[in-house]
Design goal:
The chain is α+β, with helices and mostly antiparallel strands and about 170 residues long. The chain has six helices and five strands, in the order αβααββββααα.
Length: about 170
């Protein structure tokens, strides 16, 4: 539930945080971006995140509610003063708020670390990647200790799993 979801993709650092939290073994993670209230400025994301979380805890569905932007900061201050969170005030039918468009985004995972890749990873030598000539999976240099000659001379390389599973009689001469 992202009240400022502007793009058709998730920012790289958010994608990596999601992958770290989920520890997915499969080839991808599907992220469902919910249709929630869009914030009207660049500073309401925290208040709306608290409104969504509080609503969920009280059995509300934030995808079907619009919160009153004129009162939710005051409501939050009151909750903090009372030391009790309560559902945030909903908008009246007169108020018009836009919603985030719902979308499913697939994050392809690579390497043993099961992280998504982004072109900015090329700036970090530990995140240089090579494709295994056996299983065709991609691996980070820093995760699986890929020899330097793989990057310099474009040589044949197999990951540890493929090396363990390969038949010594199939080795190249």
């Amino acid at each position: 539930m992202d009240s400022l979801f502007l793009a058709s993709r998730i920012k790289p650092f958010i994608a990596k945080q999601i992958a770290c939290m989920l520890h997915e073994d499969g080839p991808e993670i599907k992220v469902n971006v919910c249709s929630v209230q869009r914030q009207q400025n660049g500073s309401d994301c925290g208040v709306l995140a608290l409104a969504f979380a509080t609503g969920i805890l009280y059995g509300e569905d934030p995808t079907s509610i619009l919160y009153d932007a004129n009162t939710y900061r005051y409501h939050l201050a009151e909750c903090l003063n009372r030391k009790v969170m309560a559902p945030f005030p909903q908008a009246s039918e007169v108020q018009k708020y836009s919603r985030i468009n719902a979308k499913t985004i697939r994050l392809e995972l690579i390497c043993e670390c099961r992280m998504p890749w982004h072109f900015t990873d090329n700036n970090n030598p530990d995140l240089s990647m090579a494709q295994c000539d056996g299983c065709k999976e991609w691996f980070h240099c820093g995760c699986v200790k890929i020899p330097d000659q793989v990057f310099c001379k474009n040589t044949f390389w197999k990951c540890q799993k493929c090396n363990v599973n390969s038949n010594p009689l199939d080795a190249e001469a």
